[in-house]
Amino acid sequence: MLWQKDAVQWVGAFSDSTAEATYSKRYVFAKLDYTELGASLRMNWTFTPRLSAQAFVQPLFSAGRYRQFKQLAEPNTYDFELFPEQDVQYTDGVYTVDPDGSGPAAAFFFGNPDFNLRSLRGNFVLRWEYLPGSSLYFVWTHGRMDYEMDGELNSPALDGSPDGCQSRRHSDGQSQATGSPYEQARGRTTARCLWVEILWHDLAS
User: Fold this and answer.
1) What region does 87 belong to: left with phi over 0, alpha with psi -120 to 50, or beta?
2) pLDDT for 166-195, tens place per residue?
């Protein structure tokens, strides 16, 4: 299990003509609380000299929560200016930041960077050497993945696969900031994959 805190994690760059110290851009960072839990399990069975099986399972749970948003104070430094809490608003999956409170700078927007990724991959291989040098393989591969904008590791159970074969989005509405270039659908994305292969390998001939 991996658990760490990253005091300076990149969020994004936003154009702002009033940000003269950083050449008309605001470079935004945050503190990231990151948790990861994973394992790789492999099992082998030998039933006879000609019949064997192998199974592999790899679960992964990863979550990160961003907080304490701040901006780079000056180029070529490690100095940051923390945005006051009252100047950072969160509504429907979108953060709205007023970088100088009642000053002339316009507010900017970005989507919730929090993440919760749950993944399960596995395969099973059955090998039968029906003749010396000739083998038949049965291969079963399965994967599923679930992704949410939620930084808590103890979110709902795994429901879905990476690089989706069958993917779907569980949407609880559309979030957007009026007048901003940012627009992002909320909800949860899941996918499932399943492959079954039969391979034939013949060296006898």
Assistant:
1) alpha
2) 544 444 433 333 333 333 333 455 556 666
Q: How many CB atoms lie within 10 A of CB 67?
A: 11
CA distances for 71 relative to 13, 16, 74, 137, 191, angstroms: 9, 12, 9, 56, 36
> Rounded to whole angstroms, how far apart are CA atoms 185 and 22?
31
DSSP conformational letter for 181: S
Q: Which residue has the tokens 């780079």?
A: 72
Q: What would the DSSP string read from start to end of 136-153?
A: EEEEEEEEEEEEES---T
How many angstroms separate the CA atoms of 1 and 38, rounded? Answer: 7
Of 38, 41, 36, the closest CA to residue 59 belongs to: 38
Summarised one tens digit per residue, pLDDT across range 117-144 is: 999 999 999 999 998 889 999 999 999 9
SS3 50: coil
- The residues, ordered by sequence, that sit 6+ positions from 77 with a Cβ below 8 Å of its Cβ are none
140 CB-near residues (< 8 Å, 6+ apart): 123, 124, 125, 194, 195, 196
The count of residues in the chain is 205
Enumerate the β-bridge partners of residue 92: none
Q: Give the type of residue at 121.
A: R
Number of domains the chain contains: 1
